[in-house]
Amino acid sequence: MEKLFIKNRKGEEISVLIETVKNPRGLIFVLHGTGGIKENDPMATFARVFLDNNYNVVRFDATNTFGESYGQHDDMTFDSFYEDLEDVVKWSKQQDFYLEPFIISAYSLSAMCSLYFTQNHPSLVKALVLISAVFDGETFIKKYSPKELLDWEKTGIRIWLSKYGYEKRLKYSYIESMKKTDVFKGVSKIKVPVILLNGDIDDTTPLKDQKIFFEALSCDKELHVIDGVGHSFRSKDHSSKIYNILNEWIKKLK
């Protein structure tokens, strides 16, 4: 395992974690969600199952999130997250561990980034692993009430406590960036295998929305619903279920 810092297109530092195997079968980039870091679950489980199946693994903390990379969470937007993904891939192309086409695994908001990346760079992507997936900005924004959005726009920032008790802050620029990017429109163009995992009581990316997304995909696809789980997959039982589902799926990949 090697951890290092690289620069994105803005000259900001991105913390990257690289794990390699002998005679790799492929490469996977592992993306966290808005409130996560590269070392947390489900990202750690993604890494473990792919390493066990002989893949090189690259994890990174997006800028303006809670990890080791540059910036504050207040300033996170879809654009900044997506650009970091492009920049990490661009840097990786010059490294010995790089292989393409590669897999992208993504959680929550980063799923939307991975879908957009696949639409823009279809030849680079082999498959997508999406958990609790945000797949469309407008659909995701509907989880907020009109009053919440109006207050957010007026004050310029939303401040709240996460389920784990720490303060989260996001500027309204986050909502603006989600509104302007229509990823769902291009979903039917994605032709690589896609596996979706979602909790049945997820109120952030509800199962009813995941089913709409699943039906819109015109590729080799699977949807796995995990009972009794909300938006976060962090218990040992959740990790075990994710591992077993992905372990079987990986072995079917060509």
Please supply descriptive tags for the structure shown above.
254 residues; alpha/beta; Rossmann fold; 8-stranded mixed beta sheet; two-stranded antiparallel sheet; 8 helices; 10 strands
Q: Could you characterize the architecture of this molecule?
A:
The protein has helices at about 45-50, 80-90, 110-120, 135-140, 145-155, 175-180, 205-215, 235-250; strands spanning about 1-5, 15-20, 25-30, 55-60, 100-105, 125-130, 155-160, 165-170, 195-200, 220-225. It has about 250 residues and is of the alpha/beta class. It has one domain (about 1-135, about 180-250): Alpha/Beta hydrolase fold, catalytic domain (Rossmann fold, 3-Layer(aba) Sandwich), CATH 3.40.50.1820. Helix 1 crosses helix 8 and helix 2 packs across helix 3. The longest helix is centred in the C-terminal third of the chain and has 17 residues, at about 235-250.
Count of β-strands = 10
Overall 3D shape? globular
**Poorly predicted ranges (pLDDT <50, ≥5 residues)?**
none
Strand residue content: 15-25%
The helix content is: 25-40%
**Strand order across the largest sheet:** 1-2-4-3-5-6-9-10
Secondary structure layout:
Layout: E1 2-7, E2 13-19, E3 26-31, H1 43-52, E4 55-60, H2 78-92, E5 102-107, H3 109-120, E6 125-131, H4 137-141, H5 146-155, E7 157-161, E8 167-171, H6 173-180, E9 194-199, H7 207-216, E10 221-226, H8 236-252
Parallel strand pairs: 3-4, 3-5, 5-6, 6-9, 9-10
Antiparallel strand pairs: 1-2, 2-4, 7-8
Helix pairs in contact: 1-8, 2-3
